[in-house]
TrEMBL record:
Organism: Paenibacillus thalictri
NCBIfam families for the chain: RuMP_HxlB
PANTHER family: 3-HEXULOSE-6-PHOSPHATE ISOMERASE
Annotated family: Belongs to the SIS family. PHI subfamily.
Protein name: 6-phospho-3-hexuloisomerase
Pfam families, A to Z: SIS
BP terms from Gene Ontology: carbohydrate derivative metabolic process
Keywords: Isomerase
A molecular function (GO) term: carbohydrate derivative binding
Residues covered by the SIS domain: 29-172
Length: 185
């Protein structure tokens, strides 16, 4: 029986995945964020966790960023952007959120595997990430990982690439961002 170095295989998959992301996608999302008053981030499950990490980094850059559903999240309006991370683009709890944001005049950016999904079609801008939705992912095909792990990992890397692009645009470095780090821990 052959032993597989799972961590090394995951890194190989991630390398192949991020190579397929269009370089200008991070630029486009960074511009959307910088032109907005407030940024709202949402996703369900593990995609939502990646979004929470992104919202934290946005806050570190000085952006007014909020996670949808938190008690301190304000209302969205026409000068704001909602960023939705969803592999399938069909998550039932996220569709009404996108519709509500659109009805209030906010911009919506969908980060998804499927630009032709319901959320992809509703969004003003779509960032397409490679991967398989959790209902199609199976060991031995495009990924050895369960469900939508490859999408979620790629999503986090993409979000970090957007932060780096924003740091360039804003002239920020880690030292300046650290000043906004939580200090009541």
């Amino acid at each position: 029986m052959e032993t597989i170095n799972y961590a090394a295989e995951i890194v190989k998959e991630l390398h192949r995945s991020v190579e397929r992301i269009a370089e200008e996608e991070a630029e486009t999302l960074a511009d959307f964020i910088l032109q907005s008053n407030k940024v709202f981030v949402a996703g369900a499950g593990r995609s939502g966790l990646m979004g929470r990490a992104f919202a934290m980094r946005l806050m570190h850059t000085g952006i007014n960023a909020y996670v949808v559903g938190e008690t301190v999240t304000p209302g969205i309006d026409k000068h704001d952007v909602l960023i939705i991370g969803t592999g399938s683009g069909e998550t039932k709890s996220l569709i009404p959120m996108v519709q509500k944001a659109k009805s209030l005049g906010a911009s919506v950016v969908a980060i998804t595997i499927d630009p032709e999904s319901t959320i992809g079609r509703l969004a003003d801008t779509v960032v397409e990430l490679p991967g398989l939705p959790k209902d199609q992912a199976s060991g031995g095909q495009a990924t050895i990982q369960p469900m939508a792990s490859l999408f979620e990992q790629t999503l986090l890397i993409f979000y970090d690439a957007v932060i780096l692009r924003m740091m360039d645009k804003l002239g920020l470095d880690s030292d300046r961002m650290y000043g906004r780090h939580a200090n009541l821990e």
